[in-house]
Amino acid sequence: MSATPESSALARRIARLEARVEIRELVARYCFVVDARDIEGIGECFTHDGAFRSRDGQMDAVGRAAVIEQFHARFAVLGPSNHFTHDHIINFDDSDAAAATGLINTHAEVVRNGQPLWASLRYRDEYRHEEGRWRFRERSLEFFYYLQPAQYAEVMLSALRNHAYAVPHAAEFPETLPSWQRYYQEHPRPSTFAPNK
């Protein structure tokens, strides 16, 4: 029996739903393998030419082997960690069934250089279906904050919310987003508002 336009459209919709579930499982698996220090599992999350980067430029590995080496360097200064994800938007490439992109809100609890830290971040992902499964073609992270729990109230009032390194530096969102900047240009805050330092 030949496929009808309706059955072909239904098949495409089902394939898209299956891909969405598989990508979400990839994102969840990443958290578990990172926290378990399952280095082989981390590598399997990425395509052979996959990249892992941070917006601040501290991480910039291209190729699965380089990504694994970068994780070795990260784990050298990290103690226990717990990564978990929240909202996840997935966009598919209508011209390429094996490609998609994603934006994810994430939190992490980590020990870094002997200090307990909380992190709020976003991942901007490119996904690729390779060797029978979805993997990261590129994973880029950016921070809303990275701080010691005792400093939360103080640091949240500052634009310098990334305390991952010796010198605090500015958070990478939301203040840098064009929509954020445009909104406050068009709708200035009252003069009594205390802006971030």
Textual characterization of the structure:
The structure is a single chain. The chain has 197 residues and is an alpha+beta fold. The chain has one domain (5-148): Roll (Nuclear Transport Factor 2, Chain: A), CATH 3.10.450.50. Helices cover 33% and strands 37% of the residues. The protein has 5 helices and 6 strands. Strands 2-1-6-5-4-3 form a 6-stranded mixed beta sheet. Strand 5 (115-130) and strand 6 form a beta hairpin. The longest helix has 32 residues, at 5-36. It is globular and about 70 Å long.
Which features does this protein show?
197 residues, alpha+beta, six-stranded mixed beta sheet, 5 helices, 37% strand
Topology overview:
Blueprint: H1 5-36, H2 39-44, E1 46-54, E2 60-62, H3 64-77, E3 78-92, E4 99-112, E5 115-130, E6 133-147, H4 152-155, H5 178-186
Parallel strand pairs: 1-6
Antiparallel strand pairs: 1-2, 3-4, 4-5, 5-6
Largest beta-sheet characterization: 6 strands, mixed
Spatial separation of the terminal alpha carbons:
68 Å
Q: Averaging pLDDT over every residue, what do you get?
A: 93
Give the class from helix and strand content and strand pairing: alpha+beta
Contiguous helical run count:
5
Tell me the name of the CATH class: Alpha Beta
Q: What is the domain total for the residues?
A: 1
Sheet with most strands: strand arrangement: 2-1-6-5-4-3
- CATH topology term: Nuclear Transport Factor 2, Chain: A
**Percentage of residues in DSSP E strands:** 35-45%
Q: Helix content range of the residues, please?
A: 25-40%
CATH architecture: Roll
The arrangement of helices and strands along the chain is: HHEEHEEEEHH
According to DSSP, the number of beta strands is 6
**CA gyration radius, whole angstroms:** 20 Å
